[in-house]
């Protein structure tokens, strides 16, 4: 399972970079979306996948018995998803405004501020 | 309990929330903007006094014992950075009173400014690596909004580059945090530093170190990852430019200092050698880029890049003296660079342009402004007895002692080229006559139609005085840098302060 997920993460990063290198700003944002999801999935995979062992502590005990799944990565991913959502909402508005103001969706045309 | 460590985050967050509540009243938002930053500066000074007293100040969130809780840790370096944040925040808040257009103020300029400062302060104080990511994002989101406030064409184009590169760097940072968590099973920086020695796969560790270096390198605008900076920093309102120029890249530099003195010190030959070359090339490309520019703020933007190189050089040499130099350089640079942007904003107010060819005659009509430019400009170039001289002196001396002669040569050359750039601005903006094609010179020649002229001058004069103090009365400042360097070079102190002395 882990090696399969590793390939999935790899493919997602590849797809993200490919999309980000395209000229259209819409594809750029799609690339950023995939990139943040790839990072989240990476956290999920590298912190170890444990199947069917929820991190629950039995009543009366102070520590869980046996191997359990690590609950922390969930918290991290959830935080990262929320942040990525906010940032992407901004990015979508930005590309819309940029398209209106600049009048093109081609990144190669947006060279006014370059040096 | 030590409340001073949480205040630098709490004050701007509260002020931001209050400004939102006062959405309709620009007047109260302005007053709050100045007041909150005075408080921020005060809390920073309090924190600095505590840290010089006790060494470290820590706080565990929710009273859970560290490594399980998120901790806030302040050492001397973090406290210095908070004081600088307060100084810059205050200068910008006052400057904004005059320079920020009404429309920007109506659309949440002040709440965003507070939020940005909260993000910056949180990044300096947190002792948890995932929390650092969160503060980065708080800071970034506020900066995105500030950068695009106004919505002009150049801003949009600059913002796309800025947003993309910064999100990209955040994604790399997040991946690196995940990989590191997979290896050491903790997010507390002190705990990571302690457990990182037990990791068997040192090759993978170096990979993760490089990912952190790339991610912070993008934020710090290091070679070859700096292209977003000169493409975007000259586009927003000048007060926003100045705020970004002073603080944002330095957060990246601070994160580099933190991670590469505390956590990633197991393969110094490899990682710090890469840092050394990155630093050298950052200095060189930044200054050469500036030499090719003829727009006031673009020149200054490129100089941010070249100055970042000096700070990284201090870290890369990794000797106690070099770290002192790096920290001293950060202190000097934040103040000087912000001041230069503020001066450029005032010349824009007078003549309505940032292009050097459309500016001129400022020395004749506004001698005080010329002096206010000359102090930070010469300081940036490293002319004694101003702050930049001592900062450069310490870094270059450390480089000589480490027998890195090529790097020393580059650092000296870059100093010379910086002087060239500053002279170029001086000659064009201040010394030459007002160009004939410039029609609107009434405001330059005297009758400045401005109610708040004092709000332009006060921050510039204040920051210039800070520069002079660092230069002429440098011993106490140098001692502060010395103390922070001692703490940075002994990560064991940090670990003990966070986790308690009884750890194995």
Automatic annotation (TrEMBL), chain A:
InterPro entries: CPA3_antiporter_subunitC, NUOK/Mnh_C1-like. It holds the Pfam family Oxidored_q2. PANTHER family: ANTIPORTER SUBUNIT MNHC2-RELATED. The lineage of its organism: Bacteria, Pseudomonadati, Pseudomonadota, Gammaproteobacteria, Pseudomonadales. It is found in: Cell membrane. This is Na(+) H(+) antiporter subunit C. The chain crosses the membrane at residues 6-21, 28-46, 75-95. Belongs to the CPA3 antiporters (TC 2.A.63) subunit C family.
């Amino acid at each position: 399972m882990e090696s399969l997920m590793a390939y999935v993460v790899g493919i997602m990063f590849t797809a993200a970079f490919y999309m980000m290198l395209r000229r259209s700003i819409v594809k750029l944002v799609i690339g950023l979306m995939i990139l943040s999801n790839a990072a989240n999935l990476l956290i999920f995979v590298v912190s170890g996948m444990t199947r069917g062992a929820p991190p629950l502590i039995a009543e009366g005990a102070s520590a869980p018995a046996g191997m359990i799944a690590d609950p922390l990565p969930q918290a991290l991913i959830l935080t990262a998803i929320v942040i990525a959502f906010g940032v992407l909402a901004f990015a979508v508005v930005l590309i819309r405004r940029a398209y209106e103001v600049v009048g093109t969706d081609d990144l190669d045309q947006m060279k006014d501020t370059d040096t | 309990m030590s409340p001073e460590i949480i205040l630098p985050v709490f004050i701007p967050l509260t002020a931001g929330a209050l400004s939102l509540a006062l959405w309709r009243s620009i007047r109260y938002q302005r007053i709050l903007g100045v007041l909150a930053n005075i408080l921020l500066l005060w809390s920073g000074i309090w924190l600095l006094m505590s840290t010089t007293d006790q060494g470290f100040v820590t706080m565990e969130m929710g009273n859970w014992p560290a490594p399980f809780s998120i901790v806030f840790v302040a050492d001397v370096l973090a406290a210095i950075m908070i004081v600088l944040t307060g100084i810059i925040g205050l200068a910008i808040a006052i400057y904004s009173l005059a320079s920020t257009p009404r429309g920007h103020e109506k659309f949440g300029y002040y709440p965003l400014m507070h939020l940005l400062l909260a993000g910056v302060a949180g990044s300096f104080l947190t002792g948890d690596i995932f929390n650092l990511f969160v503060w980065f994002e708080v800071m970034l989101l506020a900066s995105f909004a500030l950068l695009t406030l106004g919505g002009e064409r150049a801003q949009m184009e600059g913002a796309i580059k800025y947003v993309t590169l910064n999100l990209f760097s955040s994604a790399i940072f997040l991946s690196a945090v995940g990989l590191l968590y997979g290896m050491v099973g903790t997010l507390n920086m002190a705990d990571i530093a302690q457990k990182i020695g037990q990791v068997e796969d040192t090759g993978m560790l170096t990979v993760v170190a490089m990912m952190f270096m790339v991610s912070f390198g993008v934020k710090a605008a290091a070679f070859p990852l700096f292209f977003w900076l000169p493409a975007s920093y000259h586009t927003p309102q000048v007060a926003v430019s100045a705020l970004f120029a002073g603080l944002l890249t330095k957060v990246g530099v601070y994160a580099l200092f933190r991670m590469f003195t505390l956590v990633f010190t197991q393969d110094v030959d490899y990682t710090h050698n890469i840092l050394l070359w990155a630093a050298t090339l950052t200095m060189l490309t930044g200054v050469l880029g500036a030499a090719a520019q003829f727009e006031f703020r673009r020149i200054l933007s490129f100089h941010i890049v070249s100055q970042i190189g000096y700070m990284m050089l201090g870290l890369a040499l990794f000797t106690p003296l070099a770290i002192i130099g790096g920290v001293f350089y950060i202190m000097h640079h934040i103040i000087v660079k912000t001041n230069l942007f503020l001066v450029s904003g005032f010349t824009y107010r007078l003549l309505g342009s940032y292009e050097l060819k459309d500016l001129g005659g400022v020395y004749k009509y506004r001698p005080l402004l010329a002096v206010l430019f000359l102090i930070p400009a010469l300081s940036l170039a490293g002319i004694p007895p101003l702050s930049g001289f001592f900062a450069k002196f310490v870094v270059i001396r450390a480089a000589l002692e480490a027998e890195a002669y090529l790097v020393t040569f580059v650092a000296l050359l870059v100093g010379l080229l910086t002087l060239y750039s500053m002279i170029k601005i001086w000659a064009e903006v201040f010394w030459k006559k007002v160009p004939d094609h410039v029609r609107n010179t009434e405001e330059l020649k005297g009758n400045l139609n401005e109610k708040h002229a004092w709000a332009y001058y006060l921050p510039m004069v204040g920051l210039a005085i800070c520069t002079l103090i660092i230069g002429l009365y440098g011993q106490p400042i140098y001692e502060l840098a010395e103390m922070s360097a001692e703490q940075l070079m002994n990560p064991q102190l940090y670990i003990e302060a966070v986790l308690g002395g009884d750890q194995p």
